[in-house]
Amino acid sequence: MRYVSTRGGVEPITFSQAVMMGLATDGGLLLPDAFPQVADADLRRWAGMPFQELAVEVMHPYMGDDISRRELAALVERSYSGFSHPEVTPVVKVGKQYILELFHGPTAAFKDVALQFLGNLFELLLERSGGHLNILGATSGDTGSAAIYGVRGQRRIDIFILHPHNRVSPIQERQMTTVLDDNVHNIAIEGTFDDGQRIVKDLFNDLAFKREYSLGAVNSINWARILAQVVYYFYAWSRVSDGDTGRRLTFSVPTGNFGDIFAGYVAMRMGLPVERLVLATNRNDILSRFVNSGIYQAREVHHTISPSMDIQISSNFERYLYYLMDRNADKVAGLMEQMRREGRLSVPEPLRGQVAALFHAEAVGEEETLEQIATTWREEGYILDPHTAVGVRAAKAFPGAVCLATAHPAKFGAAVQRAIGSEAPPPASLQGLMEKETRCQILAADTGVVKSFIQRKLNERNE
Ligand SMILES: *Cc1c(COP(=O)(O)O)cnc(C)c1O
User: Fold this and answer.
1) Residue 167: pLDDT band by 50, 70, 90 thresholds?
2) Domain of 414?
3) Confidence band of 244 (pLDDT split at 50, 70, 90)
4) What share of the chain in percent tops pLDDT 90?
């Protein structure tokens, strides 16, 4: 198995190289050169398998000789041992639909499923190469904590996460700053999320600094993150269908950067019986407008009660575009260039039909989201978080759909309170956070200041 770039400018590379590269060096995204095919007999055999075993079956064909099955099994075991549910990602029936609970990880959101795995995978690859990686990222809240939990305590990784001081929710702040491992460095920027992002971008563009300090990112463009997410589509299918390969399922996915739903697309291309992918967005509807019109065009970002989906541009969308363009990298590069120049791109008519045949897209407003939380609570006694509620609402016309639950409702207490009059009881991972010891450095929103802090910390750590 080799990996290629959506823009055609990278010589085929191995799985390990793709993981360490992250973003392709030509500015595109990395993808496998073929999808391993899953036969009906495999699907039947996998039904009833524990999550961890299934994960090895699904992921190993993507790794070639880089990682043995035994090594992968150990990685998977370690990555999911911190989940509070024995099934890792259990499926529950709620009314006419199924809820795939992806929030049993240490930070109570679905990003744990991929980032727990990615952290351990990085560590394994760095052990082999003898290297050290310094992860740098800016967060508006959720991704930061999942990334920190993914690498805490790893010997060959340090992580620096910038968040806007006093502008993330108290729970989100505590989830990050109560992690006291020596390799975790929280920085509160006296500024906004955009300031944090700008500083991170400046530092990545400082090539001498980037090279000297081996800076890397953990954003959703890493192929290993997508791969880890493919697993739970198979898992959900195996639990709901009971191995009946005639049973095609519809999945509803609360979508922001298109990573999660793209994993569903990959599962389908591997042979999972998928009927429809419901692409659910909040008011930030660039993707639903694309599915319904063939035109992909950014507008301003709206702040909503499902903040992890408040995006303007979906970083993984280019991966889907590559397949839509029949793997013609020149066409993808052309479209992305059009996007850069004109702020929009459009795909030709016959392809729009292809998009609409697979995806059902809906943008769900704030009132509808709150209403869905209230209805599901009243009728089924189940509390949805606002992201999951967007997906459940968008799948209304699809009874029997599997709705991906991307966050625990206790993480978004204010919205849940508005919808049903009280907050959801917190899982163990969120209890007692406010009483715990914290560590965090407050810094000016200045690239030079952040750069010296990182240098000083890393020099101290090397002594
Ligand atoms: C990140 C996130 C999403 C969006 O997932 P994408 O892969 O970016 O589409 C949805 N819900 C929650 C809670 C998230 O944290």
Assistant:
1) confident
2) 91-108+224-428
3) very high
4) 85
Residue 21: the pLDDT is: 87
307 inside domain: yes
Does residue 294 sit within a domain? yes
Report whether 245 contacts 44 (CB < 8 A).
Answer: yes
Is 233 within the bounds of a domain? yes
Q: 458 CA to middle of ligand 1, Å?
A: 31
Question: Which residue owns the Cα nearest ligand 1 atom 15?
Answer: 308
Is 228 close to ligand 1, i.e. is its CB under 6 Å away? no
- Ligand 1: which residue has its CA nearest to atom 14? 308
Per-residue pLDDT reduced to its tens digit, 377-413: 999 999 999 999 999 999 999 999 999 999 999 999 9
CATH of the domain at 374: 3.40.50.1100
Q: What is the total count of domains within the chain?
A: 1
Pocket test for ligand 1, best of 99, 218, 223, 257 (most atoms within 8 A of CB): 257
Task: Give dist(CA 463, CA 162) in Å, integer.
Answer: 24
Residue 111 annotated as catalytic: yes
- Sheet containing 91-94: which strands, arranged edge to edge? 91-94, 97-101, 402-405, 249-254, 274-281, 359-363
Measured distance CA(191)–CA(374) in Å, rounded: 35
DSSP string, 401-447: -EEEE-B-GGGGHHHHHHHHSSPPPPPGGGTTGGGS----EEEES-H
Q: Is the CB of 256 under 6 A from ligand 1?
A: yes
> pLDDT confidence of 194, banded at 50, 70, 90?
confident
pLDDT digits (tens, 9 = 90+) for 146-164: 999 999 999 999 999 999 9
User: How is residue 232 written in tokens?
Assistant: 């739970």
369 φψ region: left (φ > 0), alpha (ψ -120 to 50), beta (else): alpha
For residue 242, being part of any structural domain is answered with yes
Look up tokens 């496998």; give the residue: 32
Per the CB < 8 A criterion, the answer to whether 285 and 255 are in contact is: no
